[in-house]
Amino acid sequence: MEFVIFFITAAIALIGAIAMLVSRNAVHSALFLLLNFSAIAILFLLLRAPFLFAVQLIVYAGAIMVLFLFVVMLLGAERAEDEKDKVAWQRPLAIGLGAALLVEAIFVGFNQLAMEPPTTPEVESFGAPARIGESLFTTYLLPFQITGIILLVAIIGVVVLNQRNRAKA
Amino acid sequence: MVPTSYYVLLSAALFTIGAMGMLVRRNAIVLFMSVELMLNAANLALVAFARQQVNPDGQVLVFFVITVAAAEVAVGLALLVAIFRSKRTTDVDEVSTLRG
Amino acid sequence: MFNFIWLIPLLPLVGFALNVFVIRREREAGYVATGAVALSFLVALATFIQFAFSPPAEAKPPRVDLVLWNWISVGEFNVPFGLLFDPLSGVMVLLVTGVGALIHLYSIGYMHGDSRVVRYFAYLNLFVAMMLFLVMSDNMLLLFLGWEGVGLCSFLLIGHWFERRTATSAAAKAFVVNRIGDAAFLVAMMAIFAHFGTLSFYDIELADGAVIEGFLERADEISGLIFSIPGQNFLVSTGIAFLLLIGVTGKSAQLPLFVWLPDAMAGPTPVSALIHAATMVTAGVYLMARTHPIFELSAATQGWVTWIGALTALIAATAAVAQWDIKRVLAYSTVSQLGFMVAAAGMGAYVAAIFHLLTHGVFKALLFLGSGSVIHGTHDTQDMRKMGGLREHMPTTFITYLVGAGALAGIFPLAGFWSKDEIIAHAWSGQNFSIFLLLFVSSLLTAFYMGRQIALTFFGQQRDHSYHAHESGQVMTMPLMILAVGAVLAGAMNLPMLHWLSTWLEPTLHEHAAEFGVTQLILAVVTTLLAAGSGYLGWRYYVANSAKIKPGAKDPLYRYSGDIWEALEEAWYIDRAYEKLTVVPGFRALARFMAGVFDPQGIDGLVRGVGYAFSQAASALRVFQSGFVRTYALLFLAGVVMVVGYLLII
User: Fold this and answer.
1) Within this chain, do residues C573 and C620 fall inside the same structural domain, yes or no?
2) Staple C362 to which of A144, C28, C197, C486, CB 3.0 to 4.6 Å?
3) Which residue of A86, A89, A106 to mutate against C (max C Cβ within 10 Å)?
4) Which residues pair with A133 in a beta bridge?
């Protein structure tokens, strides 16, 4: 059963990603990416990460994708690539390099193909939101605070970047 | 149980697709999406390894990655808007005034 | 008072700082500068008196050694900033500050109306401060600081009128020639450190109880030590002493490095007085007296010292005979008298050397200030052919100058007689007949050229009427009178029967007073009679021939001597020899090579080449800077693929 769910979601994730890559309209790209994110969220659930499942859906599928769509529509940038590609020569090169990267990755993957996850009882309770929260507020308290600061900096940065008439002020 | 290596292979494939997106697309917004895709691929691998090691630290790390990615997208899109305001385009090839 | 000896060099330094940073008006500058040196003199005098009546008993030899702070401390190398006040330093300090103060006072009048008086007084103060550091240092390094400091100040002051080309080139010459000696001094210092592990003269107890052992008291440690260069063995002491000697020839204007001193009179006359009398040139003689244990270990170097001194005395004395410039005569005479001192030091008569240094400091300051007064009163005339008959216009200057000239010539009972006679007596009793002869002839020549100068300047009729001669103001004549009294009395320091100075310096210089017998008496009488006769001859001849002397004319003696006279005028062509031997073939060619080849092709070529290489490389590399972000990403990915591939393969 788990295998069936995995293969279906994996296929959806791959299809979403490839569709994002090839669709000419940026809005379509964003929607396909949304599909991909949702599939990954389900994979998180399979991997016993219910907390990350929620975060993935809320932050990525919810906030970030909305932001993307919003900007695409605001700028009217759905069809930014209608003109001729100035560096078209690098497309075959890119495909070749991508293939090489994939080959390397698969090579690494096949070397560890026998990597079976442990099935001890401990794994059953693994990844509960309570444990993640505990470790966030104890062991990883400082990084947690720092991410807060990073978000604050990002907010300030965005405000400053899009301030109008800065020179006159 | 699905073996960890399956997840890793899927992650590698998604990462490669993201990287290809970086190289062949010109729309800056789509480039950003590709970056997000690559981040997600990395996240997937992290979570898979976390399960493999029975160590929740991997999940915590993914949590941080998602948070920082959110900040990154916000700043990146703000930059994009600022560039669009002066250049009237989101084509990254048009933004090449730093050419040597 | 012993705890306040740091005030002695500090006061002129404060004067310097005030003149540099605060004072802008000429009058204040003169007063502050003079006051600072005068105060310093008073402190020195008080210290001296206390030292004389209650010397510090604990130290052997008796001295005050005040370590102000730990100056340099690197590993084994430990140099405290220590000031020394012992009999030798004491008399030097008194000379420097006393004569220095009078020269400062005189400068107020002499430099009146000059455009850069404040700067002048600032440098003058710094000069005195540096000289005080030199004579009060308790180690070689601080001495070297003063040594270099006076070199710098002489450069600045000789070049005071830098609008004049002669002044700037004379300043540069003084600096460069001094540098040769300084380099040798530096090497000597390193050698001393290498062999003794310290640069301090005497044992010093630091605040934390540690003791730095001075090298002078254990100079014997290197006696007999030998170092070799291929084919030749030398005593280490000879090496060190010889290097010090080179330093001395530079600073104290001895053969072959004396050429800077006659040119140095391009500066203001009080500066010449300061350089020639109280500071700078005396440093070399002081150094030899201070480090005499090292010199005494090397008989070879002692011989060199003696011969260099005696030859310098003779050459400079002969050159002085043929000069027309009133200050140049005195300049060569200084070189000559320094030759006497150096020769005395070479013969081991350090007391006589210091004695002559002190008396000479007084009467040479008097003579230079007198000549300054003459120059001032004749509106910047320096050529003696344009003078004459000045005794009526400048009576005070004339009388004081006469005293100074008499002292220099060694006429009984003036100061120079006692000190110079002591040196000559030493040469006589040392059985060194050739040295004695050189010094004796020099001494007679001294009397001759002073007689000539007096005759040309003050007697006869005024030969050039383009100026109206007048006596200088009181601020200038007063130092002259004080110095004239000094020139009469200074000999009393070391009268043959009393030996005050010998006794005073005995703990430091380890030299007992020479006995004074019938031979010495006869010698003294003969010397002074001959000197007086020679002086009278010089005076008589030039007074009698005063009608033949015209501006631009040749000397009356030229008829008899011909070309030799021209050689004398140029001090035996030593300057020209330098030019022919080093300046023209060496430095000019080097300079031409540097300017014509090395600079445009070497340096510029290097600079341009670097720039060219980078711009070429940049043009090649800019292909990659296409401005397309995606291309950068592509390259990045290529890098990733390669790195991962590499990691997979290994």
Assistant:
1) no
2) C486
3) A86
4) none
User: Are C517 and C425 within one domain?
Assistant: yes
The pLDDT tens digits of the residues spanning C166-197 come to 888 888 888 888 888 889 999 998 888 888 88
Is the domain of C321 the same as that of C394?
yes
Domain range for C602 is 587-649
- A-B contacts at Cβ under 8 angstroms: 241
Tell me which chain B residues have a C-beta less than 8 angstroms from the C-beta of C621: 100
Closest approach of B98 to chain A, Cα-based (Å):
16
- Are B23 and C625 within 8 A, CB to CB? no
Q: Is the pLDDT of residue C241 over 80?
A: yes
Chain centroid to CA C35: how far?
24
Number of domains in chain C: 2
Given an 8 Å threshold on Cβ–Cβ distance, is A40 in contact with B43? yes
Binding partners of A (≥3 Cβ pairs within 8 A)? B, C
- Report the Cα–Cα distance between both ends of chain A, in Å, rounded: 63
Q: Which residues contact C296 (CB under 8 A, 6 or more apart)?
A: C219, C302, C348
Indicate the DSSP class of residue A25: S
Predicted complex ipTM = 0.89
- Do C533 and C390 share a domain, yes or no? yes
The closest CB to that of B2, out of A14, A21, A46, belongs to: A46
Nearest to C626 among B22, B95, B99 (CB): B99
**Residues C422 and C330 both lie in one domain:** yes
Least confident range from A98-112, C444-458, C522-536: namely A98-112
Per-residue model confidence as pLDDT tens digits over C36-45? 999 999 999 9
Nearest to B56 among A117, A126, A153 (CB): A126
Amino acid at C255: L
Residues C479 and C549 in one domain: yes
Tokens representing C255? 């053969």
> Residue with structure tokens 């495909």?
A95
A-chain residues within 8 Å CB-CB of C641? 97, 100-101, 104
Which of C577, C601, C627 is a domain's end point? C577
Mean pLDDT confidence for C350-370: 89
Per CB-CB distance under 8 Å, the chain B contacts of C622 are 100
Nearest to A60 among B16, B28, B66 (CB): B66
pTM of the model: 0.67
Catalogue all structural domains in chain B, each as residue range(s) with its CATH number: 4-87 (1.10.287.3510)
CA–CA distances in Å: residue C41 to residues A76, C9, C82, C590 = 92, 10, 20, 48
C413/A11: higher pLDDT:
A11
Q: Do C496 and C599 share a structural domain?
A: no
Residues C459 and C427 in one domain: yes
Kindly tell me if the per-residue pLDDT of A146 is higher than 90.
Answer: yes
Inter-CA distances, C394 with C102, C371, C376, C585, Å: 20, 11, 11, 49
